[in-house]
From TrEMBL:
Alphabetized InterPro entries for the sequence: Beta-lactamase_class-B_CS, Metallo-B-lactamas, NDM-1-like, RibonucZ/Hydroxyglut_hydro
Keyword Hydrolase: yes
Cofactor(s) the protein requires to work: Zn(2+)
Annotated Metallo-beta-lactamase domain residues: 44-218
Organism from which the protein derives: hydrothermal vent metagenome
Entry protein name: MBL-fold metallo-hydrolase superfamily
Example GO BP: antibiotic catabolic process
Subunit note: Monomer.
Compartmental location: Periplasm
Entry GO MF terms: beta-lactamase activity; zinc ion binding
Entry-linked PROSITE patterns: BETA_LACTAMASE_B_1
Length: 288
């Protein structure tokens, strides 16, 4: 499936050390977010980790070649095995480690559409990499003394997004429903939309208080204020692109108008350039 390969490829290409898929140079950085909860950053999406007496609970797992490094990082904070892996969506930089973890006995959990998309992948997804537990709207884990609430927001990054809320610790792992401080990648081919992306961010902002800690899919640990900044930026993008559409401009003319010029210095990055954001917004807003 083209979109799963593209999504993984953009993260690899965005990291100089991975330009030739040389995962040997990747280091896994472990950051404690709260007692028993960590963020692991390496290549691909940020990993969330809950540890305690019940065992390790992992949110996303990056790429298969990094599995041993990820397990080594986990071993520095717990001697318990990984019991659950929650995929926030189906892209390869978040699900690439499913197979080795599944083979080791971890139970993989995801939205219904994640399993469906992985099953349809052209390259074929090994059975061990498929979610064995799926949900449509919400599910809750009572694990390591925590209530871990998982919900599917309005289609944002994809049609299988999951957001994970550690209620007692006031921590939210947003997967790629948040790219902190940068334009988001919205996978329209996989059901994502600009409208849904804004709505998803708004749903989290309405749910949390000012002291919440956000683990984004990509970028540093963030805050509610960072969510609100992303909402304001994306609303501005929507307003500007919709105005061009209403004027009758086609996609190429909209790109040529450079409507996001003043935003690009702050929000553009290697993959989602100003042009890419214009094209994404245009396609999303004109989709039937």
């Amino acid at each position: 499936m083209k979109s799963i390969l593209y999504a993984a490829a953009i993260i690899v290409a965005a990291t100089p050390a991975l330009a030739q898929s040389d995962f040997s140079k990747v280091e896994i950085k472990t950051t404690q977010v709260a007692e028993g909860v960590y963020m692991l950053a390496g290549a691909g999406g940020n990993i969330g980790l809950s540890v305690g007496e019940d065992g390790a609970f992992l949110i996303d797992d990056q790429f298969a070649p990094l599995n041993e490094k990820i397990l080594a990082a986990i071993a520095t904070v717990t001697d318990k095995p990984v019991e659950f892996v929650l995929n926030t969506h189906y892209h390869g930089d978040h699900t690439g480690g499913n197979e080795p973890l599944g083979k080791s006995g971890a139970h993989i959990v995801a939205h219904d559409n994640v399993r469906a998309r992985l099953e349809k992948a052209k390259a074929g997804t090994p059975a061990a990499a498929l979610p064995v537990i799926t949900f449509s709207d919400t599910t809750t884990f009572h694990w390591n003394g925590q209530e871990i609430y998982v919900f599917h927001p309005e289609n944002a990054h994809t049609d299988g997004d999951a957001i994970v809320y550690f209620r007692h610790l006031n921590i939210v792992h947003m997967g790629d429903a948040m790219f902190s401080g940068r334009y988001p990648y919205i996978d329209i081919a996989a059901g994502g939309s600009l409208k849904g992306y804004i709505a998803s961010l708004q749903s989290v902002a309405a749910m949390v208080d000012d002291d919440v800690t956000i683990i984004p899919g990509h970028g540093p640990l963030s805050s509610k204020a960072d969510i609100e900044r992303s909402i304001a930026m994306l609303k501005g993008v929507r307003t500007r692109i919709q105005a061009l559409i209403d004027q009758g401009l086609d996609e190429e003319a909209a790109v040529a108008a450079d409507p996001l010029a003043d935003l690009n210095e702050e929000w553009a990055w290697q993959f989602i350039t100003g042009e890419k954001m214009v094209r994404t917004a245009y396609k999303s807003l004109t989709a039937k």
